[in-house]
Amino acid sequence: MKNKKQVFDNVLDLVGNTPLIKLNRMVSNFKGNFYAKVEAFNPGHSSKDRTALYIIEQAEKKGILKPGDTIIETTSGNTGFSIAMVSIIKGYECILAVSSKSSPDKIDMLKTMGAKVYVCPAHVPADDPRSYYEVAKRIHEETPGSIYINQYFNELNIDAHYDSTGPEIWSQTEGKITHLVACSGTGGTISGTARYLKEQNPNIKVIGVDAFGSVIKKYHETREFDEKEIYPYRIEGLGKNLIPGATDFDVIDTFVKVTDEESAHAARELARTEGLFSGYTSGAAMQAIKQLDESGEFKDGDQIVVIFPDHGSRYMSKVYSDKWMQDQGFFDSQNEVTAENIQY
Ligand code: PMP
């Protein structure tokens, strides 16, 4: 580990070098040994701290950014939070164009972190001048000394993980990793991590996690964009209705698709069995591991690393709300632990 410091200059000193934590009870009946790369230990509580910091520092190195300049992105999610955090410390303006579907909590959180937030109508086509994509592009064009992060199409998103997540996992497993299981949204995490790991050992198997309702898995298999794959789903940050330029499909061996319901239950199970309070996509990754175990993917002695992208606290009104689970029809069993049936 690089960071042996006891006192840090600022929060950015703590980005990366996240722990690898062995999973025990949840995988006790599975073949192989499982280790979680817990990205919630980043100061902004997600893997997106790495992407934001890396892309901004690359722009600084190229002389594109100087203090007081502006950083623009189109997300109310983890990336928005991370960019806002980096901007505070480095003295940049942060402008986020977000969809009106974003929860008020998220918008308040970004404003608290000093971001200027433009709320754009959700139900307009991407090329409508009011869409958050178009608003971000326009602000970027009109603002001298600005950069547009554009995480879905920025190759540096891959490089961020090639530079940090991959080497960390290689060294933490002492080169013994046999499988990498990771969610794919922009694809930056899985692509950069896999690219590094496969350069060290091409036999490492890389498995992406995709959502039912997303085109990614089908595209990987056919290299064709199949619109029929696309329908609404609940998990945020996983899968997509377009093909991200920040995904390197050649370093991913296969994809597994997971459902909203099973991923939600897996996220709750992860908290109850391992004491790891993680986000919805961490549940999705664990659900993928269950399916892979059932299909005989793992054998004794395998060292499987699974990436948990963020912290559970961002999902209190969703996966960790019994009411939300009930409203989705995700509680069909009397045995499910809810606030109502728990015995004090
Ligand atoms: N999980 C969550 C919660 C995310 O916000 C993201 C990022 N969109 C991912 C997984 C996927 O990471 P990546 O974009 O690097 O593929």
Automatic annotation (TrEMBL):
Keyword Protease in annotation: no
Ranges where the Tryptophan synthase beta chain-like PALP domain occurs: 12-310
Transmembrane segments: none
Cofactor(s) needed by this chain: pyridoxal 5'-phosphate
Keywords assigned by UniProt, alphabetized: Pyridoxal phosphate
Designated name of the protein: Cysteine synthase family protein
